[in-house]
Amino acid sequence: MFEFWTGSPDLAVYGFLIRALIVYVYVFLLVKILGQRSLSTVNPIDFIFGVIIGDIVGEPLSSGELPLGGPLAAAGLIVGLHLALTVISLHTPRFRRVVEDEPIILIRHGKILKEQMTKAKVTIDSLLMDMRLLETNLNEVDYAILEANGQISVIKKSQYDSITPQDMSLETAKKGYPTVLIEDGNIILANVKKIGTVDWLREQVTKHGYGSYKDIFLMTMDEGGQIYISPQEKQGAQ
User: Are 178 and 222 in contact (CB under 8 A)?
Assistant: First the structure.
C-alpha cells in the first residue's frame, strides 16, 4: 500500500504520480522557507544548492526502487544548512565574505583594470556585451563593478547622468506602488476597500469611458492617484 514511499522494483504508475506530487509540495515548502529571490540575482552558492536539491529529490522520481524518505530527509538537511549559512552571513559581515564574493571593480575613473579583469575572468568581449545590455558605452563609464551575483553594474560619469526633475527644481507627483483594482473583468474587492468604495470604482470606470468593469482587463491606481486602464481584447481582434 505504501510502496510509493518505501520503493519497489515494480512500482506502479500511480506510485510515481504520488511521489511527484509529494516532491512538488515538499520543494514548494522548502522554497517558501528559504524566501524569495529573483533568478537574475542568484549567486553561485544558491545555484549549486538548487542543483544538489534537484538531483537528490529527482532520483526517486526516476527510480521506483529507491525509498522516498531518505532523499527528502537529505534535502531537508541541506536546506537547513543553507538557511543557517544565510542567517549567519546576514548577522556576521566577516563570515558573509566567505559565503559571498566581494564586488570586483573592473573600471575605475574610466580606466579598465587589467589585473582585476583577469582575476574576475572577464574578457573584453564580455565587458562590451554587458555595456551594450546596459545601453551605455565605455566613454560614459566612471566605475564598472562585477557584483557578487555575476552581473556588472556601472556608475556613469557625472556629465552623462540623466537630468532629473530635482535637478530642474520641478515639483513631481508621487507615484508609489500600484494597486490592482480590476483584473480580467473582476473587481478585487479587498484592494478597492483600501482606497474607496465599489460605487467610487464604478464612477471611475464610467469616467474613463467604459460601460462596465467587465470591459476592463486591468485597472490599477498608484499612491499618487494615477489610474491605468487596459481594456479587454475584443474577440476576433488581431
Answer: yes
In terms of phi and psi (left: phi > 0; alpha: psi -120 to 50; beta: otherwise), the region of 25 is alpha
Give the cell for residue 94.
566577516
Q: What angle do CA 100, 106, 107 make, to 5 degrees?
A: 140
Letter for the amino acid at 35?
Answer: G
pLDDT tens digits, residue range 66-82?
A: 888 888 999 899 888 88
Hey, how many other C-beta atoms are within 10 angstroms of the C-beta on 209? 9
Contacts of 167 (CB under 8 A, 6+ apart): none
Predicted TM-score (pTM) of the model is 0.61
Contact 120, 148 (CB under 8 A): no
SS3 42: coil
Q: Which residues pair with 152 in a beta bridge?
A: 146
182-207 mean pLDDT:
94
